[in-house]
DNA sequence: TTGAAAGCGGTACCAA
DNA sequence: TTGGTACCGCTTTCAA
């Protein structure tokens, strides 16, 4: 007699209870039109008494909007995506939208899921290497406002990225100042747009400085173990590289472990750098690049809101600044350059 | 002529195009009833041609379900929640449910948002210290199946937690073996159910061993900076504590920094332990406790699915095992006990 | 100020 | 095998 009454209270029951039409109840509840104060009072009383909660589905169907938006990302391991998603959620929630998440987990074909997501939201953010461009285009074409984050622009969609170029160049310059000659790059430029950019900038910076970049990157996935294995391969080369420039911090941390295993000291025997400035980087003394992750997510949420509100303004493209964080893994310095990481 | 036709194609247009009723289109699409092969073919052709995508809202309203579920957590910074959410998302998605997230960000009163979330899902998971018990009870009463994760049971709701007790005791025992006498606890037992348990078990273990537990914990928030400040306070005490048992790894890492600043060596001058086994812990040599985070989320998702499917089985309560990870920060050992953290 | 009723876009039962 | 139609629960226009 209590467990089974899953029957939701509807607006009809409220109306009946008060002795008015459902239209009046609706008005009283949303304050969209004038309702006699006395009537409103009675409606609210009945709502309270019956514990009426309007059905979101009925509401959305009638309003023609979900009041929700989604975000698609590859994964959530590692602080990078978590922080971005968090920044996104915070702003989206503030703007009154619920947030749907979709992790592609590196699955072969997430387009079905992405399209499915598109049917449940008023707008969505698509991050990095998750789905093919044509799927993104399709989503946009359906009429779902879309903002791209940390991936190359597609059509006329708003796109926000972090600056891989400048920092990669600064990093190389810094390493050159240390006097290094032989560089290796650990990471797969095909694995994500960010790495593609970082690797390209890395090569260009070396070339511009009159150095010869490595023939090819030592390809590996984004995790510690992959970095460990890749570093082992790289360090087996002869002559041994003096610096391992890694696609991200996880890879770099794995590389540090590999170096230690081989009895190599960092940075005396081999220098190592990462990317992302995860918390562990600080404790490992890892030289890396800090990205404004929270800000990336927050900005995406705001832009999306504008588009959902119908803004037809020109396409927005923005590259948020990043910051080189010099610690000890890249070589000896006079003093610790970092104040409080 | 292309930008403005936000008009979604409806099932009516498909039906008209094919010259059948909407009922037939619906059947052809969901394969719920027999449809003449030829008819089905024509329907699918029209669907393709018109790029028809059924409205999720219409569908859900008619079906009486959202095909979505939610998860409420305090935050996403730090790997703990990220991993749990990821494990949850993965399973939920596999089971055909979209996932809505809600981060409470430690805001004063998230009950509005939680209730709002409850209107959009068929079931939800509520983690740790996010909302008051009565809100959870209310959500459950509304008829939204709810699973509790890492928080004390409420009513007859399924509850899954990680084992704080056993590990806390093991940890204390291990520290006692090191011969320490003076313990301090860094963290706020009121900040989360997990810390409440850990602190209690910590005290009990000391008491059981005939030692005197600290008069009170050194309260601090869950982040590195808070841990840093708390450690400074704790280390200023006289006599100085020999061990700082920290509520989680972030706090412990902050404490390590504080110790270093004061010229104290870990573990020679002061031992430090954490909780969670975040990536940085490995590189900091931090003795800590590993939790099955992914598994927590995944299990919650499965249980929720059962309840959403209408299971009236007895309340489920499960405590997943955790694992003490001994590294160097707790004191000298014959050999590194950890194989590959 | 309020009510009647037409949607919103589907699903599924009942007949044919 | 297919069609007609009654919902699902709410919003909003048009009249009264």
Secondary-structure topology with pairs:
The structure is a homodimer of 341-residue chains.
Chain A: H1 11-18, H2 22-30, H3 37-50, H4 56-63, E1 68-73, H5 79-94, E2 98-103, H6 111-118, E3 123-127, H7 133-142, E4 146-149, E5 158-162, H8 164-177, E6 183-186, H9 193-208, H10 224-236, E7 243-246, H11 249-261, E8 271-273, H12 279-284, E9 288-290, H13 293-308, E10 317-320, E11 323-325
The structure holds a DNA duplex (16 and 16 nucleotides).
CATH superfamily of the largest domain in chain A: Response regulator
| Strand residues, percent of chain A | 5-15%
Number of domain units of chain A: 3
Radius of gyration of chain A: 26 Å
Arrangement of strands in the largest sheet of chain A: 2-1-3-4-5-10
Domain HTH lacI-type (chains A, B): 9-63
Organism (chains A, B): Plantactinospora endophytica
Keywords (chains A, B): DNA-binding, Transcription, Transcription regulation
Protein name (chains A, B): LacI family transcriptional regulator
């Amino acid at each position: 007699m209590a467990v089974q009454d899953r029957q939701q209270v509807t607006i009809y029951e409220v109306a009946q209870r008060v002795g008015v039409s459902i239209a009046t109840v609706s008005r009283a509840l949303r304050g969209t039109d004038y309702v006699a104060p006395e009537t409103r009072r009675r409606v609210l009383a009945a709502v309270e008494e019956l514990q009426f909660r309007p059905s979101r589905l009925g509401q959305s169907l009638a309003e023609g909007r979900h009041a929700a938006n989604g975000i698609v990302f590859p994964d959530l391991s590692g602080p990078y995506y978590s922080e971005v998603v968090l920044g996104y959620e915070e702003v989206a929630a503030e703007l009154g939208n619920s947030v749907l998440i979709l992790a592609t987990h590196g699955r072969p074909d997430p387009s079905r899921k992405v399209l499915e997501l598109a049917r449940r939201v008023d707008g969505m953010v698509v991050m990095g290497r998750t789905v093919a461009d044509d799927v993104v285009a399709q989503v946009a074409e359906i009429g779902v406002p879309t903002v791209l984050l940390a991936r190359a622009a597609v059509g006329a969609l708003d796109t926000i990225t972090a600056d891989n170029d400048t920092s990669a160049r600064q990093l190389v310059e810094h390493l050159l100042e240390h006097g290094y000659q032989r560089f290796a790059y650990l990471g797969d430029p095909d694995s994500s747009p960010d790495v593609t950019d970082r690797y390209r900038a890395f090569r260009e910076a070396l070339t511009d400085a009159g150095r010869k970049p490595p023939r090819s990157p030592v390809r590996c996935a984004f995790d510690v173990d992959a970095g460990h294995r890749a570093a082992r391969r790289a360090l087996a080369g002869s002559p041994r590289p003096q610096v391992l420039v890694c696609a991200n911090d996880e890879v770099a941390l794995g590389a540090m472990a590999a170096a230690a295993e081989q009895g190599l000291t960092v940075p005396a025997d081999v220098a190592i750098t990462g990317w992302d400035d995860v918390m562990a980087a600080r404790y490992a003394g890892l030289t890396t690049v800090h990205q404004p992750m929270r800000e990336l997510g927050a900005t995406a949420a705001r832009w999306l809101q504008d588009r959902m509100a119908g803004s037809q303004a020109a396409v927005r493209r923005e590259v948020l600044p990043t910051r080189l964080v010099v610690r000890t893994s890249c070589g000896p310095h006079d003093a610790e350059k970092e104040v409080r990481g």
